[in-house]
Sequence to fold (66 residues):
Amino acid sequence: MTKANTQKKEALFHLKRGTRLTPMRALEWFGCFRLASVIHRLRLDGYDIKSEQVPGERYSAYWIAR
Fold:
């Protein structure tokens, strides 16, 4: 399994648990430097992932719509 697939699998695991995933959490928890890219690939796979910019920051938080 490639690193990209592992990161996708890890991100999906946390999103399905109901975690609001941020780039800093992704970096800390599973070494992902490009969370937006992983989220993009998950959306292409059909997952309904929502996002919003974190107030006062330059990054977004992601979660799966329920």
